[in-house]
Design goal:
512 residues, mainly alpha, 3-stranded antiparallel β-sheet, 3-stranded mixed β-sheet, 14 helices, 7% strand, flat
């Protein structure tokens, strides 16, 4: 009974499922058929709406095209009107241009006729001019070129006279201001700087404690004095001068070494060749130390720092070098101060001016060891130790070997001249002094119209007597300038030389 019940239940379930399937299928088919009909209706409505929309769009497009066509026609009509107006204006302008061209052609014809008339008149005038010139040449007895030369000479004379007057006026005006300011600046500079000067000499005197020391210095058979002279290169003069020995030599450094060595030997008391050699070597080392300290002191006095140690040593050597009786180191320090003061007053570079002033004569420290003048030697030394271009240029230009292109170079030139030209700063030998005066007088006497020349004030001024019948008052200005230029070009001298021209006119008559 149980199996039968189970089968019956299974069969009933299957029958239920089949019945539900057929029921659902019928319902689904109904829904599909209804959906198909609904879709067909929607498609039909859409087609009708599309046809209606299409007709509306076509209608609107036709209306827009009609309106656009009408607007184009209006625009074309307006443009045609403007073109017609423009064509009318062009026709009028062409007519006006034709009229103007015709007028220009008529004017050209008139100008051609006038030019022909002018050519005829010019030929007539030229003929008359030639006739007049020919008649004037006959009357004057001069040709055209001769008369032209005479006229040019007269004009040149008048121009030179006027130029001389103008030069005199300009010089007077310039000197009134420039000399006053320059003198004030130089005077203030010199007043703010002073340096000692020593006389140039070739001997050194060493004092002795007693005359018995002379015999010990000479030694047995003169061996001590020979050793001293050989090692120092200096001549020892032992004469009747009481308690003194004279050291003679042109090299001041050697004389200083000999002095130091002799003083040490006198204090020590042991004088023999071996001791002499040892003492001379020690004196050389001591002098090298003194030279370096002297150079450092010069840098300190001038406020210059950063110099190469070898340049400092060369500065110290300048203490033992003189030029025309003036100590070169003192002169260099003075030039540095002068150049620095003037640079400060004129707005220049004070450091460069002082540095170049201190180093401007550095070549004199070794000019007896190296070939060339002291300017070339100094420039090479400064280049070797990497000094600045501005300092090297100032050193190179301080004697005019090259043209000074910076304010500092010009100031070093001026400071060097001021220091060298100050009264008492330098002295020169009689031969060179007389030779310089003779050269001054010969330069002035070489000019035409000069009667006699006198060099006065130790060559600081020359007085030139001119011939009054050859040189007039106006040409004296030009003559004095020419003489000064020639002196500047041919002579070397410290400071300035005044050229003073004197012209005298005398009229003598006797009453009888």
């Amino acid at each position: 009974m149980t199996m039968i019940a189970i089968l019956a239940a299974v069969i009933a379930a299957i029958a239920g499922v089949l019945i539900g399937y057929y029921v659902n299928k019928n319902q689904t088919d109904k829904k599909l058929s209804e959906a198909g009909r609904s879709a067909d209706q929607i498609i039909s409505d859409a087609k009708q709406q599309a046809e209606t929309k299409k007709k509306e769009i076509l209608f609107d497009a036709k209306e827009e095209s009609i309106q656009y066509k009408e607007e184009l026609e209006k625009e074309n009509r307006s443009r045609r009107g403007e073109l017609n107006k423009f064509e009318n204006r062009l026709h009028q302008k062409e007519e006006n241009l034709d009229k103007k061209f015709a007028q220009i052609e008529r004017n050209e014809e008139k100008l051609d006729r006038r030019n022909k008339d002018l050519d005829k008149k010019q030929k007539t005038i030229d003929g008359l001019y030639e006739q007049q010139v020919h008649e004037l040449e006959k009357i004057s007895g001069l040709t055209h070129d001769e008369a032209k030369d005479i006229l040019m000479d007269e004009i040149e004379k008048e121009t030179r006279a006027e130029a001389a007057v103008m030069v005199r006026q300009i010089e007077t005006e310039a000197k009134t201001d420039a000399e006053k300011k320059a003198k004030e600046l130089i005077a203030q500079t010199i007043q703010r700087c002073a340096a000692d000067h020593v006389a140039e000499n070739t001997i050194t005197v060493v004092n002795l404690p007693n005359d018995e020391m002379k015999g010990r210095i000479i030694g047995r058979e003169g061996r001590n004095i020979r050793a001293l002279e050989t090692l120092t290169g200096v001549e020892f003069i032992i004469d009747d001068t009481p308690e003194a020995v004279i050291l003679s030599g042109f090299d001041p450094i050697r004389r200083e070494i000999a002095r130091l060595a002799l003083e040490k030997l006198i204090l020590d008391g042991r004088i023999h060749p071996a001791r002499i050699e040892e003492t001379v070597k020690k004196a050389q080392k001591d002098l090298e130390t003194q030279i370096r300290e002297t150079g450092e002191q010069a840098c300190f006095d001038t406020g210059i720092h950063g110099l190469h140690p070898e340049l400092v040593k060369l500065l110290g050597r300048l203490k033992y070098r003189t030029s025309y009786g003036q100590n070169v180191l003192k002169h260099s320090i003075e030039v540095a101060h002068l150049a620095g003061i003037m640079a400060a007053e004129l707005g220049g570079n004070v450091k460069i001016a002082k540095r170049a002033g201190l180093l401007h004569d550095i070549g004199k420290a070794i000019d007896h060891e190296v070939e060339g003048n002291h300017v070339e030697i100094g420039v090479n030394v400064l280049k070797k130790y990497k000094e600045s271009k501005a300092v090297i240029h100032a050193v190179q230009a301080h004697h005019g070997d090259v043209e000074a292109t910076t304010m500092e170079a010009v100031l070093v030139q001026a400071a060097d001249a001021i220091s060298a030209a100050r009264p008492g700063a330098r002295r020169e030998t009689l031969v060179s002094y007389v030779q310089r005066l003779e050269e001054l007088e010969s330069i002035a006497n070489s000019f035409e119209g000069v009667e006699k020349t006198y060099a006065i004030q130790a060559g600081r001024e020359i007085r030139v007597m001119v011939k009054p019948e050859v040189v007039n008052d106006e040409s004296m200005v030009m003559l004095s300038r020419d003489i000064a230029k020639k002196i500047e070009g041919e002579l070397e001298y410290p400071g300035n030389i005044k050229v003073n021209l004197i012209r005298e006119t005398r009229s003598v008559e006797y009453a009888k």
